[in-house]
Automatic annotation (TrEMBL):
The keyword Glycoprotein does not apply. PROSITE patterns: GUANYLATE_CYCLASE_2 (PS50125). It comes from Micromonospora sonneratiae. This is ATP-binding protein. Keywords: ATP-binding, Nucleotide-binding. SUPFAM superfamilies: Nucleotide cyclase, P-loop containing nucleoside triphosphate hydrolases, TPR-like. InterPro entries: A/G_cyclase (IPR001054), HTH_77 (IPR058852), Nucleotide_cyclase (IPR029787), P-loop_NTPase (IPR027417), TPR-like_helical_dom_sf (IPR011990). Residues 924-948 are annotated as: Disordered. Residues 13-126 form the Guanylate cyclase domain. Residues 934-948 have a biased composition (Basic and acidic residues). GO terms for molecular function: ATP binding.
Amino acid sequence: MSARIRLPSGLVTFMFTDIEGSTRLAQMLGPGYRPVLAEHRRLLRDTLAATDGTELLTEGDSFFVAFDHAAAALDACLSAQRALASAEWPSPDSAPRVRMGLHTGHAEPLAGEYASAEVHRAARIAAAAHGGQVLCSGATARYAAPLPDGATLLDLGLHRLRGFDDRERLFQLVAPGLERQFPRPRTAEAVPHNLPIQVSSFIGRQEERVELGRLVGEHRLVTVVGAGGAGKTRLAVELTSGVVEAYPDGVWFVDIATVTDPGLVAFAIAAVLGLRPEPGRPMADTLVEYAASRRMLILLDTCDAQPAASAEVVSRLLTGGSGVRVMATSREPLGLPGEVVWRIPPLSVQPGPGGAPSDAIALLLDRTAAARGGRRAGMAEAADLQRVVTRLDGLPLAIELAAARLRVLSASQLAERLDDVLGALDAGQDDPQPLPARGQRWIANQHDTVDLAAAALGSAPTPAARAAQRTATQRHVTMQATVTWSYRTLGPRAARLLRWLAVFSGPVDLATVEWLLADDALDPLSVLVDKSMLQAEPTASGTTYRMLDPIRAYAARRLVDAGEEQAARDRHVAWSLNALQRAYLGPDERPVTLSLYALDPLADELRAALRWTTTGGSARCGLKLAGGLDQWWRERGLAREGRLWLFRLYGRIAETRERVPDAELALAYHMHSTHAGADGEFAEELRFSKRAEAAARRAGDDGLLARVLAGRASSLIDMKQLVEAEQVCREVIDWAHRREVSGEALFAVYSLAELLWHQGRLDEAAELLGAARPVEAVRPIERARRSVDMLLGMVALARGDLVAAHDHLVVALRSRMSHGFHGRACDTVSAIAVRCAAGGDPVTAARLFGSAAQIRAAMRRTPGMFGAYWQAEQANVRAMLGDSAFDAAYAEGTELSLAEAAAVALAVEHPDLAAGSIRFSGADAPARRRRGTRRDDRRTGHRNESAP
């Protein structure tokens, strides 16, 4: 440099420039690089000459320039970048991308050069820039007024420059003709990461964090898979934010949801890492080379937006170097070797240790308090809040949306509206709203990253791409948007299967899926599981497939839109009828002893099928469904629900004028009559009994008429018309015997035996029941109730024969509990309470009375003819114990479940084994005790395997 050149002094603005990727550009162009470099120098010098910049040093592709004024320096950079952009280069790839950095500070030249830290700061700012970008320090920004026309300075925040301890606020020059989108500045951050800052607290998932953290520590690729809104991103960010210090080269978050083209996945990752494309080199190569020697964790979010491209880039990163680990979130696995697929479970809806709120409840309480301005939900809402989280299957996004609804609804109002999950949660969300857990600034940064990737390919984002970006960032605003995000990736067969599975209310097995489609469903089923639209749940009998309720609601809407609802729901009704039939038959297709436990798992499916038969399907099929649950309704304390379904079916028949045979109507009316009696509606019971008789007579079926007339006695007994009831019983029994349908009149035998017991005609009752035992034994639908043994036990109690009473009642209780006849088991518990009182154990009697009364009330079950007897015996026990002791034992009994009460009843010692029994006294008592035990087993029909 000539000594005659005047160097600025005092407040000096220093500019450094160089060509980004100059080495790669020189290798690519070979001899053609020299003219490019020369043209680059000419353009910069022409600009400097026009702005009074003093060129201090030119070396290779670098310039070092000093300015008297910051504004002149910024003007020079703007003019230079515009000149470089508008120049004609041999090819687009050969255009030099020049980065520029400015800093202003006090400096004095000495011997034609500057020896000042301000020069080094300017050099570091230039090194932080990217090709085409102009960065300046806060000092330059302060002294740069006035800015060139149309120019502004974009605040990029505080950054730590290499070699400097403090943080420098950097600004980017923004003006027409300059690029705007760039990766983060290349600065030395103390904690290298870009994880999104959460604006709400993280709730629960302690066990999941531990398990997932262990997997990330042991494996290089872990994919967190789950349905939309399951909380994958939130958990992944929470976990990775705690391990930043373990990765010296950073933890980097990349949202693939905003990537609109498969070719941009590598560019999006590179942009987050601060990399720019190198001339003539694939971006993936640059990315792999950069990551190969570094130890970093890359969190790729929403890989299902570009699954194939994401898998390809991840594979290259993992094989390119051993220090890179990848944690991905997706609705489906990437399918790469070595990939550990971890499926995120829903939030637990079960209470935590010590009765602490479940994770789902804790999240709902936290978000509800926020929605209500800090007011927490009260204890009065606890039960309804539990209903809400259970109905939402613990899905975090659904819970967040539910909390927003609780701003305007009470918990009970929201719970009542969740039959329409999407309508309840998405109400008021027609206009896009910000995501609840991510800030607007971060969303904008994601758009900038995608714009940068598009620009790197030499194209601007199209309107369609922009729309796709908006869709991606708004995909969690509503449940419908969340599920649509996955649904649009399904093929025709998988989409159809998802729609048709919406008709099921609970888990299904593979055989059911195949039956539904009448086709090989394994392939579409696998797709739905892989994409987290179905949850695969291993069980002891095989894998079942469950759809979360919000997804089911969405699929049901799609089913209607596709015009397939009628066919799919009719198919489901047919499946339900078939499932009911199988519950009554054994493997050999022959009737087996009815167990109501076989119907419990079907209840929700049958309700869903019934709902369709009352609104859009066949009411005749609905009557068959209700008939298959005939005893189940009453034995589960649901007689009222059974009546309501029947009323709806009658309305459907009147609406559609569907033809229903008289025999089937007679069965429905008879069932309705029995439900009404169990529910205490005795006038309705008699009215439908008469309707059943009329329909049975029209049908001309003797067995059906005998069954209906046998039930008439129950109606008369409930209405205290005991003389008329006895007459009906005897007439029906005789008539059925003459018609050789005695089995169908069995209920009349039970009713007559009750009447005889009530009159004290115990021998006649015992003889009648003894004759009925073989008839009951051959009827699979009735024999598990052991009504004969129950009534013989009552006869024995009235006689004071505790041995016979114990034997009969234990047999009845065991059978009833073993086969799920809970209502009748409750009656037997009351009878055993009487046996305990008579046997000198009033405390156990009081406990059993308390339990039976509590369970009977919960089941809304009337005590029947024996109700007055139970009350009288209970009063006797109170007199034996005294009020205080009785009340304590009775209250203890009310805390027992039916299973616990039955266990207490069955543990009551046999009278023959009681201390002081005359049967087991004397020297040969042990031998007689063994013989007596074997004889008692034969009497009750049970085999004692331990007896010799």
